[in-house]
Amino acid sequence: MIDLYTASTPNGRKVSIVLEELGIPYTVHPIDLGKLEQKEDWYLKINPNGRIPAIIDKDNGDFSVFESGAILIYLAEKTGKLLPKDPKERSIALQWLMFQMGGVGPMQGQAGVFLKYAPEKIPFAIARYQNETKRLYSVLDRRLGESEYLAGKELSIADVSAWPWVNVHDYVEISLDEFPNLKRWEEQLGRRPAFQKGKDIPNKVDHKKDEAEMVKKGQAILGK
What is 87-191's CATH topology? Predict the structure, then answer.
């Protein structure tokens, strides 16, 4: 049994999706980011960085893991699924996982910050991060023109890591129409039951309807 500490963000959705794909039983513990629950002492014992997501593996001596990429690797290795065993194929999967962790997530995240949360609009910053996100999307698009999934012929944690970010492309006002391979992949994965269920944990979010509340929470987090 896994205890999952999460919120409705792309990084949080990675873990609920992978748990669904792997069929691992888990208990959801929603973290209210707007109330800064992630900064409370009890949670910092689980994740010293004060961010979501984090897990506790109840079947492994209450072992805790933080950082979404590290969690995906841990769960893939725990089950022997979604991460190839062949060294070269494993490396390819991890390369694309790190591409998301070090590129797509940070750049798209900053695009969202300056577009939605900043107290004043800074056109240079908005354009900088939107354009870099588009560049990274173009890299994904080229890769997905070569193979069905990021790591090759099979779904892997690389796909699970990237999809929740690409899935919210509209939140940073980027269209997938100019990235046909990426669009095909995003729609294809979005039809998988595990992705459909996992993306709505701990709760379903409508980015247009719920934008005001999301902005409020984002500004509260950035203020700390």
Answer: Glutathione S-transferase Yfyf (Class Pi); Chain A, domain 2 (1.20.1050)
